[in-house]
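Entry 14. Structure prediction run on the chain below.
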Amino acid sequence: MRSLHSRLFLVASLVLASLLGLGALALDRAFRTSGEEAMRERLQGQVYLLLGAATEDAEGRMRLPDALPDPRLSNPDSGLYAQVTGENGAYVWKSFSLIGRDMAFLRPQGAGVRNFAKEHFDGEEFHLINFGVLWEDFDGRELAYTLAVAESTRGLIAQVEAFRARLMYWLGGAALLLLAAQGIVLAWGLRPLRKAEADLHRIESGEIEAIGGRFPRELQGLIDNINLLIRNGRASRDRYRNSLGDLAHSLKTPLSVLRGAVESGDREALEHTVQDEVSRMDEIVQYQLRRAAASGAAQPGVSVPVAPMIERLAATLAKVYGEKGVDCRIEVAEALRFVGDSGDLMEILGNLMENAFKYARHQVRVEADSPRASTGGGDSAIRVTIEDDGPGIPRQDREEVLNRGSRMDQRLPGQGIGLSVAQEIIRLYGGYLQIDESRRLGGAAVTAIL
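Output returned:
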């Protein structure tokens, strides 16, 4: 039972069969009970008919006539039988239907007492009633009589069996219709899962790039996560491919410089060039490795506090650029957390804050908060703004500095890939990087939305 459809169909069928079975038992019991109640009412009615047909003899005593209102009492073995006894056993009367049958079902009862019972005679089940009455003769004496009527349950059993047959016929038909409807409903309800499965096969074969279309909200989260995994996988592949290309391209210049230094034959210049270019190549390799390893996806339940990381980076950069005496102001909510990989956050903040310290004259300002509805993000979105009082970035150059290897200022060391690395990681988290002019400090203001 590895099929979800089969499991649901089996369980629903068992529940349906149980409910229909219990319903059939309840209806059968109710029909039989109502039949028995009706038979008791008929027996009571027969007693009243006997009393209504009774006559008096010369002394005023009760006597039953030979001709009775119900013809079954006059037909032998008709299934309906009656007995009357009274006057302390001096009077005994039996219906003609008892001819040839030995049935002692009369049980003397007190005046006004009615007793119902079920008994078997000659292997046949009967419903009985014994009813006691008082009859006053002409002398004013009250004489006790007991009237007993017995009716065979053959007719009731036949009615119950006929009802059961009809019940099984209709319930069986209803069960088949319900099973068919159930199969249709299950097929319709599980169709989104089949569509998702078919789309996954099409993704594997390269026909499409993601699972498309609208799905029920119970599945939409799963589909979105699958598409996210697919996008992250492709982004990771492209990231490593681009990193290899960028690494090869970035190493071409240092290698050319080294080749030229070797060909020049100047040993002292060669040693100095090798040290500079090896350091430069190591920096390029480290940047490319960090960028290629950026995950761009959060693990469930994992988040990183933002404030401690910014404070550590600010303290480190203040030592690196200690000769400049940079005053770094930090405004970050203590409760602010980044839902993602700590290495990714470190790479983003490290690149942006290092640029700010590098180009600042004396001041750097770092602010971080949660934009939420103001930017269309959710509660997990964060916004980091880093400002400096440096020369800033001209408007016409802001897009260019985000390209890999682009540097507007060649006087300071670097490879021009820090902003590009930060931007690529930010994009992996569905955010963006924006460069503006700082109104408070006059330099650049770089805002990262994640």
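Helices lie at 4-53, 154-189, 191-205, 217-264, 267-293, 306-320, 342-359, 418-428.
Filed with the rest of this week's runs.
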